[in-house]
Design a protein that fits this description.
Layout: E1 2-8, E2 19-25, H1 36-44, E3 57-59, E4 62-63, E5 81-84, E6 99-105, E7 112-123, E8 130-131, E9 142-146, E10 152-156, E11 163-165, E12 168-170, E13 175-176, E14 182-185, E15 188-194, E16 202-205, E17 211-214, E18 246-247, H2 290-293, E19 295-298, H3 332-337, H4 341-349, E20 367-373, E21 381-386, H5 387-390, E22 393-397, H6 399-416, E23 422-427, H7 435-442, E24 463-464, H8 467-482, H9 495-504, E25 509-515, H10 521-533, E26 539-546, H11 556-566, E27 575-580, E28 586-593, E29 596-606, H12 611-614
Parallel strand pairs: 1-5, 7-8, 7-19, 22-26, 22-27, 23-24, 23-25, 25-26
Antiparallel strand pairs: 1-2, 2-18, 3-4, 3-5, 6-7, 6-15, 7-9, 9-10, 10-13, 11-12, 11-14, 14-15, 16-17, 20-21, 20-29, 27-28, 28-29
Helix pairs in contact: 4-6, 8-10
C-alpha cells in the first residue's frame, strides 16, 4: 500500500508552518508508531531537532494514538494532513449559515464565503473581508450586510468602476440582495446563495488507504481501483500517490480563485448545481470539507445600515431594468450544465452529487467553461468549448492568467469525469522555466487519480517534467494511434478522415496538457501530430503558450502567430482561446482552419483559479 501524508511542523514565531508531502509504503494496518519518527524527520529537515521526546501527531485537534491508529484507515488515508507535536487548526463544522457568497466568475473566481452576519467588505485590498485579485475592483469596493433576521443588503463604497446588482447600479444606499442575485464588481461576478448544506455522496474506506465513493455516474466503472480518494478524516480532497517526500510550496496569503465557462455551446439541460469553498485564511495547506475551506465571515454587527426604506434591514428594493425580473434565476440552466469553479470545488470536496457525473455517453463530456459573456437578456452566460468537437484546445496569454485558466479547465475535467473514463497526462518540459517552477505550478495534479497509469505505462504518475519522461509519454500515445482504426499511417491522413474516426470513437479519453515548448524536435513533431489527429483515438491536447495579451497594438492575429511560434502544436488545435486586454482579464475564443484563426470568435471575461484553489 502507498499513501501520501502531508505533515506540518510546528510554527516558529512568525514563520509559517513547514509542510512536507511524504510517500508512505507499508502494509495496510501498519501501526502509526512504525513510521512516526520517519514522518517527523521528513518535515523537520536535516537541521531539525525534536529532542529526545516522543513523536506526537495530530489529525486536526485530535491526538492520534500511535499504537492504535493504523495506516490505511481513517484518518490515516491518502491525502491526510497531520500536525507534528501540536494540534492542528480547529476544523469548523459544516453548520448552516444565513447565506453564502460565491465568486462564480472572473479572474479570482471559486471562493465561497459563509456569511454569519454583520458588515462584510469586498475589495482588492488584503484588508477586505472578501479580497478579490481583480485589477478592476477597488481596494474597498462594496459591503454586504447580513441582518439579525438573515436578510442581506449591499452598498457601494464609492468604487471607481461601480457595483451592479443584476445589471442595475448600486450606490451608497443599501439595497436588498436576494438569493440567486448577481453582483458585478470589475470583471468578477458574485452570487448570493442560501446557507443550506450541500448534499454529499457516501464514502467508505477500501482497506488500502483510500476512500471509495458511491453514487456517481462513474463509480461503478471506476470500481477497479480507480475510485476517487479523499483524505483527512472529516474533510475530503482528491488524492493520488504523490512524489514525496518533497517540501510543500510556500503558502501564499492571497485568495485567488477562478471559474471557467467556455465557448460556443448553448444551454441544453438542467441538473443540480453545486457550491464551493475557499482556502483557510492563514494559507496553511489543509484539506477538508466546506467547514475547513470556506471563509466564515461575521462583520461588526453593531454597525448601522444606512436607512433607505422602512424595511428592517434598511435595504431598498432595487428597481430592475425593463424586461428583467428579480425572480429569474441567473443562468440556472447554464449553471446546471456547466458548473462554475465554486461549484466544481465543492463537488470535489464534498464529495458533491455531481462528482464524475459525465460518463463517455454524456452529451457534455469533455466540455469545459473558459469564461462568461453578457447577452442582451442574460448576464454572465457561460462560454464553453467541447474537446470532442475541437480536437485539441490552445490557450495563450501571460503566464499568471494563463496558468489560472488552465487550472480551471483541467479541474473541471477531473471533477466531472471518472478516472475510468478520463486519463490526464502532463508534459511540462519547457526549459524557459526551471524544473522547480514547473513542478510547483502543477503539484496539485499529483493528487488526482486521473494521472495514475492504468494502461501499463512504466511510471507512477503520468507527469513528465524532463524530456526522457516526455518521450516515454508521447511514444505511448503515438503507439495507441498506430494501433487504432487509422493504422500506422494516421499522421498523413486528411482532417476529414480523422474527424470521421473521432466521431466513431467511444472512449475512454485522454487529455494531454502540453505546457509550452516540449523541447526536442521529435517531441515537437509528435505533439503537433497528436494535436492534429489524436482525437481519432480519444486523445485531446490542451496546449499552453505564453504570449503577451492581445491588445489594439498587438491584435489577435499577432498573438495567434506568437502562440504558434511558442508551441508548434498550437497551430494544430481546432479551437484557441487567447487572453486579451491591458491586464489579461478577457479572452477571445476562436475556431481555426488550416492553421489560421477563423472568424471573429467570442469575447468573454476570463475565469481563472489559483494554485491554492487547485491544491
Amino acid at each position: 500500500m502507498q499513501i501520501r501524508l502531508t505533515v506540518l511542523a510546528p510554527r516558529s514565531g512568525q514563520t509559517p508552518a513547514r509542510a512536507c508531502d511524504v510517500l508512505v509504503t507499508a502494509p495496510p494496518g501498519t501501526a502509526l508508531a512504525t513510521v512516526a519518527s520517519n514522518l517527523a524527520a521528513a518535515v523537520s529537515g536535516p537541521d531539525g531537532s525534536l529532542g529526545s521526546g516522543a513523536v506526537v501527531l495530530f489529525a486536526g485537534r485530535e491526538r492520534l494514538d500511535a499504537q492504535r491508529c493504523a495506516l490505511g484507515e481513517p484518518p490515516l488515508v491518502d491525502g491526510a494532513v497531520l500536525s507534528l507535536q501540536v494540534p492542528g487548526e480547529d476544523e469548523a463544522a459544516d453548520d448552516a449559515v444565513p447565506a453564502q457568497l460565491h465568486v462564480v466568475a472572473g479572474p479570482d473566481a471559486g471562493g465561497v464565503h459563509l456569511l454569519h452576519g454583520g458588515r462584510i467588505r469586498i475589495g482588492r485590498s488584503a484588508d477586505a473581508d472578501v479580497p478579490l485579485d481583480d485589477p478592476d475592483v477597488s481596494r474597498l469596493h462594496c459591503t454586504v450586510t447580513v441582518s439579525a433576521d438573515g436578510l442581506v443588503s449591499v452598498a457601494d463604497l464609492g468604487s471607481t468602476n461601480g457595483t451592479l446588482l443584476d445589471g442595475t447600479e448600486v450606490r451608497d444606499r443599501p439595497v436588498r440582495l436576494k438569493p440567486g442575485a448577481l453582483l458585478r464588481l470589475g470583471e468578477s461576478t458574485l452570487r448570493l446563495t442560501s446557507g443550506a448544506r450541500t448534499p454529499t455522496l457516501t464514502t467508505a474506506p477500501d482497506g488500502e488507504g483510500h476512500l471509495r465513493v458511491s453514487g456517481t455516474a462513474g463509480a461503478a466503472a471506476a470500481d477497479g481501483g480507480s475510485a476517487e480518494e479523499y483524505g483527512s478524516g472529516h474533510g475530503y480532497a482528491p488524492a493520488a500517490a504523490g512524489p514525496g517526500p518533497a517540501p510543500h510550496e510556500e503558502p501564499d496569503d492571497r485568495h485567488t480563485y477562478g471559474s471557467g465557462e467556455g465557448g460556443w455551446a448553448d444551454t441544453r439541460r438542467q441538473s443540480p448545481s453545486e457550491r464551493s469553498p475557499r482556502l483557510p485564511d492563514d494559507g496553511t495547506p489543509r484539506r477538508g470539507g466546506i467547514g475547513a475551506w470556506a471563509r466564515r465571515l461575521a462583520g461588526n454587527k453593531g454597525e448601522p445600515v444606512h436607512e433607505a426604506t422602512p424595511d428592517e434591514t434598511g435595504a431598498a428594493e432595487l428597481p430592475f431594468p425593463a424586461g428583467a425580473s428579480p425572480a429569474t434565476p441567473w443562468g440556472s440552466a447554464a449553471e446546471s450544465v456547466w458548473p462554475d469553479p465554486a461549484a466544481v470545488l465543492l463537488t470535489a470536496l464534498g464529495p458533491g452529487p455531481r462528482l464524475w457525473e459525465r460518463d463517455i455517453a454524456h452529451p457534455e463530456a469533455l466540455v469545459v467553461r473558459l469564461g462568461t459573456t453578457d447577452r442582451a437578456e442574460l448576464p454572465a452566460v457561460p462560454v464553453t468549448v467541447g474537446l470532442r468537437e475541437a480536437g485539441s484546445l490552445g490557450l495563450a496569454g501571460p503566464r499568471t492568467r494563463l496558468a489560472g485558466l488552465a487550472r480551471s479547465a483541467v479541474a473541471q475535467l477531473a471533477a466531472l469525469h471518472s478516472p475510468a473514463d478520463l486519463e490526464i497526462v502532463l508534459i511540462s518540459t519547457d526549459r524557459a522555466r526551471s524544473a522547480d517552477e514547473r513542478r510547483r505550478e502543477w503539484a496539485w495534479l499529483g493528487w488526482l487519480p486521473h494521472l495514475r497509469p492504468m494502461h501499463g505505462q512504466d511510471c507512477r504518475l503520468l507527469l513528465a517534467y524532463d524530456r526522457e519522461q516526455a518521450v516515454a509519454r508521447t511514444t505511448e500515445l503515438v503507439r495507441r494511434l498506430d494501433d487504432g482504426p487509422l493504422g500506422p499511417g494516421w499522421a498523413s491522413l486528411d482532417r476529414g478522415t480523422v474527424a470521421e474516426a473521432a466521431g466513431q470513437y467511444a472512449g475512454p479519453y485522454t487529455v494531454v496538457i502540453i505546457d509550452g515548448d516540449p523541447g526536442s524536435a521529435v517531441l515537437r513533431e509528435n505533439t503537433a501530430r497528436l494535436a492534429a489527429a489524436g482525437a481519432a483515438a480519444g486523445i485531446h491536447l490542451i496546449c499552453l503558450a505564453e504570449t503577451p495579451a492581445a491588445t489594439p497594438t498587438s491584435p489577435v492575429a499577432a498573438t495567434y502567430e506568437a502562440a504558434c511560434h511558442a508551441s508548434i502544436a498550437f497551430r494544430e488545435c481546432g479551437a484557441v482561446a487567447m487572453l486579451s486586454g491591458d491586464v489579461a482579464t478577457a479572452l477571445r475564443l476562436l475556431r481555426t482552419a488550416d492553421g489560421r484563426a477563423a472568424g471573429r470568435g467570442t469575447v468573454a471575461a476570463v475565469d481563472a483559479v489559483s494554485a491554492h484553489w487547485a491544491e
